[in-house]
Amino acid sequence: MTAPAPVPSVVFPYRDLLGIEGLSPEEITLLLDLSERYSQANRRPGKKRKTMRGRTVINLFFETSTRTRTSFELAAQRLGSDVINMQVADSAIKKGETLVDTAVTLNAMHPDILVVRHPESGAVKLLAEKVDCAVINAGDGSHEHPTQALLDAQTIRARLGRLAGITVAICGDLAHSRVARSNILLLTTMGARVRVVGPPTLVPTTFERLGVEVHHDMRRGIADCDVVMMLRLQTERMQGSYVPSTREYFRFFGLDYAKLSAAKPDALVMHPGPMNRGVEIDSEVADDFGRSAIQTQVEMGVAVRMAVLKVLTRNVDAGLAEPPP
Amino acid sequence: MSVITGGPSGRTAYLNARLLDPASGLDTMGDLLTVGGEIADLGSGLFKDGAPHDAMIVDCAGGCLAPGLVDMRVQLREPGDEHKETIETASAAASAGGVTAMVCLPDTNPPIDDVAVLEFIARRAREVRGTKVFCYGAATRGLEGAQLTEMGLLSETGAVAFTDGGRAIANAQVMRRALLYARTFDALLVQHPQEPTLAKDGDMNAGEVALRLGLSGIPAVAEVMMIERDLRLVESTGGRYHAAHISTAAAVEAVRAAKARGLRVTCDTAPPYFTLNETAVGDYRTFAKLDPPLRAEADREAIVEGLADGTIDVIASDHAPHDQDSKRQPFAQAEFGIVGLETLLPLSLALVHKGRMSLNALLACLTVKPAELLGLPLGRLAKGAPADFVLFDLDRPWRIDSDQFRSKSKNSPFDDAPVQGRALRTVVAGRTLFTFDNITAAVA
């Protein structure tokens, strides 16, 4: 007598996408494969689909953003959804409304998906607990930015063909970066080796607990890497509190050809944008289309967000929505 | 100043010396040969078949020949306060005291918080061509304890370590980030360990003497509090830390315990803290006004003990020149600090004469230990090492006379003090920068 075959479980059965943490390699792969299909479709004319016709997506941004908001907006429109953008300047938060009150108010309007960015870590999860619709974290404080990590991963897959076994150096202000946290979680889950590089004020050794190598010397940190991922350094952190000056930062941690020569000859250069040219990245490197994947990242951004919107819509329709992992 | 550069071949032979090299433990009668700026050879019986014919001969007459002193705490006052001291006068004072390398604190005016200031001092030192000069970089901009300096660029320009000089880095977050950031370049952070809120407006050590004189006190606890706070930060950041001029028993104990725990911690003291106690303030003597202040007798004894057991790594002069106007003031208004370059060696040798330290152990605190701490290839009496050394008479008794100081400033509480041991000749990079009275010197 043979044992009963295991019931095939649904991949990615969640209502929300609040972070990369807790996702399995299969779940990440599902989203990336779907992204790849959308990225090909996006290159053809006639991009608009009916997948989300009649749905409402609200982009709720408590922090100014142009590219992420635009990317989500475009993704939702291409899937046929209605989209409303709410910036913090327009919202009642400015008039003293609490986050939870805002959530309850929006919930009463019955949106299908809320895309939320908030300057405080954990705020998006708090909001998600108070609404009935699906929630996508578009960046919460220094915590997570899952769609950025997915688009970075899809960019690497598109350019290098795989994630497992490659070495990625993430350089710069790791301490305050939600992009870095989500990328570390995703890349290590997918079997890539990750190094983090920067001065100890921005890259505390505690990062070792996340299963990555910590380096304080740029050349050693990016030596033989397949991907060099630069992070944006906020100007207010370069006035002497974390880093003494932009010129010193560029001298020791800015990505120029001299330092890049330590990486693999065809190593990919990435940056989540917007770039500080001459601070964390040299213009020549940023504009080198052979090396720089920065344009591909933007392209993949729309595709990845379409994939996430599609999967969350599917889950609601199929009654699959589980509490977030 | 007479500068003798050697024989026609640039060679100089030093005969009949007690050769002392604390790094290797060498302590033997012998000879030493310099060629140009380097020690070419040394050892007992080196010239048993006669000294080289083309060398200049210096008969050391049995005197001690040791690596030149590396003084890791000197205020050069140039740029900014040239009426108190210049690189040239400090160099003359250093040579007279057997000091061959000075490390300049960043509290010049402007402070050494920018590469340009460091380059200026380096250029002036090259022009003076005397004692070797090295510089600290400021740890924070303007020594204001708030924003980090460009430690990487300063290190590349030659800064040997980072400190805010005579000011404590008081803000714990700034200190933590300075320790972290310095790790990028494996740089040493030197703290003036004093809790400023406790030391504020203080004139001298808090205690009976201050009470009787009606002066406001700086409590001994102000020092150990700052060190203990810093040690916690060192432990959590993995930084390299050095506590400057420690003066209290509690501080010695804190450093001793930290070393036992394996932390990367070192410290130094200065001669007044193992030579004098708070009673030296006597009748409002502003020459005995120091920062940190002269402490109680039990503290002085603990400093000696700390040196003897190796807890205290380095003795530095903490040379702080001040003109008469700065010191001839009511005690509370007088400046802190004393000159020390010319008294560093004789005051330190007292520890040997009193049997508290061996000669080589003491010399290590003045030469190779500070050199290694700051990553300087100095402080060795060895083949191939730079020809920076001092010939001194270990036993010669004399009285310190501040009128004879080559320093521009004469602020010393040790004027007229009887001491034993004196520098006779000081050589930097093979060039004799200083000789004392009737030492034989002739070209063969």
Largest interface: A-B, 18 and 17 residues
| Total beta-strand segments of chain A | 9
Radius of gyration of chain A: 20 Å
The helicity of chain A comes to 25-40%
- Mean of all residue-level pLDDT scores of chain A: 91
Structural description of this entry:
The complex is a heterodimer of chains A (325) and B (444). With 325 residues, chain A is an alpha/beta fold. Helix content of chain A is 36%, strand content 14%. In chain A, the strands form 2 sheets. A 5-stranded parallel β-sheet of chain A has the order 7-6-5-8-9. In chain A, strands 2-1-3-4 form a 4-stranded parallel β-sheet. In chain A, α1 (25-41) packs across α5 (146-160), α1 (25-41) packs across α11 (294-317) and α5 crosses α6 (178-189). The two termini of chain A are 36 Å apart. In chain B, strands 1, 2, 3, 4, 5, 17, 18, 19 and 20 form a 9-stranded mixed β-sheet that branches. In chain B, β2 (26-35) and β3 (38-43) form a beta hairpin. Chain B has 14 helices and 20 strands. Chain B has 444 residues and is of the alpha/beta class. The longest helix of chain B is centred in the middle third of the chain and has 17 residues, at 221-237. Chain B has helices at 87-96, 115-128, 151-157, 172-183, 196-199, 208-213, 221-237, 249-260, 271-275, 297-308, 324-327, 344-353, 359-366, 368-373; strands at 11-21, 26-35, 38-43, 56-59, 64-67, 69-74, 99-104, 132-135, 137-138, 162-163, 188-191, 204-205, 217-218, 240-243, 265-269, 314-315, 389-399, 418-428, 431-435, 441-443. The model of chain B is unreliable at 438-444 (pLDDT under 50). The A-B interface holds A 199-201, 204-205, 216-217, 239-245, 247-248, 251-252 and B 140-141, 146-153, 177, 180-181, 183-184, 237-238.
